[in-house]
Task: inverse folding
């Protein structure tokens, strides 16, 4: 609420684990091994928000590869909205590649 007793226009997003905003080049790998370049626009220890340059058919279980960091995550698709998708890291840990 604001000082006048009305509702505030500002919304506060609350998450159990803090997310970090960034632009990290990544590769989405579907269950058939097809690869699509994308970028991670925010991430946490539990998951990430991924943005694509064009519409993509997304598998429910994927690998998310971060070549510059030498990491790869097994992940599950949680949501999709336009060119963005949210994934949950399955074991919470990356594999070194």
Result:
């Amino acid at each position: 609420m604001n000082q006048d007793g009305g509702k505030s226009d500002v919304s506060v997003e609350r998450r159990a684990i803090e997310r970090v905003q960034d632009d990290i080049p990544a590769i989405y790998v579907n269950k058939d091994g097809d690869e699509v370049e994308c970028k991670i626009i925010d991430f946490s220890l539990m998951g990430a928000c991924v943005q694509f340059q064009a519409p993509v058919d997304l598998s429910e279980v994927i690998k998310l590869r971060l070549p510059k960091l030498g990491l790869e995550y097994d992940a599950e698709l949680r949501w999709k909205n336009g060119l963005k998708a949210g994934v949950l890291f399955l074991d919470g840990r990356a594999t070194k590649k």
The chain has a mean pLDDT of 81.
